[in-house]
Amino acid sequence: MENFDKFSKEYEESLEVKFKKANGIFYTDLRLATLLLNELTFDHENMKIIDPYCGTGVFLAAAAEKGMKNLFGIDLDKKAINLAKKYTPTAKFTCMDSIACEFKDIMKRFKLKEKFDFVISNPPYVPLKSTSLNTKEYLFLRQVKNYGDNLYIAALLRAKEMVNDNGFIAFIIPKNFLHVNAYSFFRREILRDFSIISIIDLGMYFKNVRGEQIVLILKKQKNDNNKIKIKKLIDNEFKLLTEIKQDFYNDKIILFENDEDVNIYKKFNKAYTTLNDYVKGYVGRGHSKDKNSIGGKDIRKFGFKTPTAVTSGNQIFIQNIYSAEAGIIACFGGELKANDTITIFTDGDPTMCRYVLGLIHSRLINFYLLKYCFNISTVTMHIDARYLKSIPFIVDNENFNVVLEYVNKLENLTYMSDEWFKYYDLLNRMVYRIYNLSQKEINFIDLTIKKLQSKKWDKNGK
User: Fold this and answer.
1) Which fold has domain 274-461?
2) CA–CA separation, 353 and 350 (whole Å)
3) Residue 169 — φ and ψ, nearest 5°?
4) Domain 4-255: what homologous superfamily?
5) Helix (H, G, I), strand (E, B) or coil at 455
6) Helix axis angle, 400-412 to 350-360, nearest 10°
7) pLDDT per residue as tens digits for the range 176-224
8) Nearby residues of 390 by Cβ (< 8 Å), 6 or more positions away
9) CATH 3.90.220 occupies which residues in the chain?
């Protein structure tokens, strides 16, 4: 086992980068595999464990180290399978496409009649449009497309077929599975039919993989009183952050980190309406093909990067790519045309547009987006209509004109000057007042945002 990581890594590095990306191949190291297995409870050494996308067999090697005897591995790569046999000779391996093949064919290959107690893997992540799924199962393929159109979705669906009642699925998958709309149907099915034992935030664990990953551990038995353990990889340990009752969720799964997180979320959803309740016009991507149309690169917070005349109209232009470091970048777009790198918000009242512009730039609204829409994703996300419409929104008659005054100052002052930062700070304080947040809540939000955003957005760190 001492040389396992070395030879596994050497073999992975021998594969062409283009081939790896096309097939979603990124190997798990022994340390992470061992941490994952430590999250599981094995009642006896003969419990059946399968890794259907095993590569060089790291999960099975780690399971063998724990004394498990009934181990099975599948992979399309014959060379990887040969390495796996060398390091885990007690396991049974076969070379086949475990996503394209029907489950009955897998059982026949291993001469098994009963399903598996554990299905553990780091499956391939790659959109189906970038690869192919060579299966004749029309309904399975249709389900994959409806559930997110990615190979790892197909792998999860196969895992459901493989695991026995009361058995476990433990997969390393992209973190965006928890909140991206394309996976909504599958999330609802999992919440309905499984107990989610734990979700572990790995951050950006794998080199050269865009995005962040989680460990998702499921039990094929629904427990109405189940609490999901939310954990995070910190200092080479899976540390418990909090526990959330599974019935709290009905679709999107938010990785709350503590009680304050939960309480603020509940307050947002109970005490306030949403921007959707006030939308009177269009919310969506720009669609102009004009070479002079405005793009995301042309705007900054509250204005344009180069002087642009805007005298009338009712549009807000929002940079479509959202990052934790910068937050919302938007300006009043008037009657200008925008391309598809801009998300447009319109309202029949131009004055309301500027009020909205002020609120969406605040730390409070950026906190909401980062925490409760994007699960603190450190990679860029698309700030599309459904995220904007979900924003908690208050029209405060008493302070409406004050917000407009601050927005006017931020539009006309020298960008990021001391005076500009002064009014940006005043705007943030006013928004906290409008939403009636306690000082404890304000401190929590400020601390969270300052940890994530670039220091240049804080006048003290300018």
Assistant:
1) Adenine-n6-DNA-methyltransferase TaqI; Chain A, domain 2 (3.90.220)
2) 5
3) -115, 130
4) Vaccinia Virus protein VP39 (3.40.50.150)
5) helix
6) 80
7) 999 999 999 999 999 999 999 999 999 999 877 778 999 999 999 988 8
8) 274, 275, 276, 373
9) 274-461
